[in-house]
Structures are given as C-alpha cells and as structure tokens.
Design a protein that fits this description.
Helix content is 76%, strand content 0%. By secondary structure, it is mainly α. It has a single domain, classed as 434 Repressor (Amino-terminal Domain) (Orthogonal Bundle). The mean pLDDT is 84. It comes from Streptomyces olivochromogenes. Pfam families: HTH_31.
Length: 108
Amino acid sequence: MNRWNAESHKCLVKALDDMLTHCYDKGMDTTTDTRRGRLLTWLESGTAQRLRERAGLTFNEVAERIGVSHVTVRRCEKERYVPRDRDAAIRYYELLARLRDELKDAER
C-alpha cells in the first residue's frame, strides 16, 4: 500500500497548479471556489510568498491592497491559510495573478 508523503503532496499540488494555470492562460472562466483553490495551492507551494517577495511587497502592502490585516497575510503564507472572507481571498488571488503576469512580462 502506498503511503501519502510530502513528495506525493508536492506532486499533486504541482499538477493542480499546472492544470489551473492552463485554464487561466486559455481565458477560461474561473469560479470563486477554483480561485480559492488556486490560492491555496499557491500558499502551500510557497508561490504566494515568492511572488510577493519578487514584487518587493511587504505583508502590510499586500494587506492594504486586499483589505485584511498584515497578520492575516503573514498567517496565509506561514500557516497555508486562506482568508475566511471569500471576497478577500479572491482579491488576494487576483493580486497574486497580476503580480505573476507582471513578473512574466518583465522577464521577456
């Protein structure tokens, strides 16, 4: 019997992230739950923190943009927590998606 381990979890998170990236890149409509799920995969994989850091943003700056406290942003990144406020979670996801796109464009 196979055991669930950290490597299996990483592979699953990567596969889900790749699938959602494909949908996003193709302009497919994403529902609130899909965006919250995508946010969770970015938090669990450390992508959210890397995007924030590469963009030079602090916890406070992200918090101001999405309408939550800096403690919430820190908790999201460190404890892999998605904000309970659905609208804040969507704003967080959309901010990260914009940062990702801007960073990709800057690399070209």
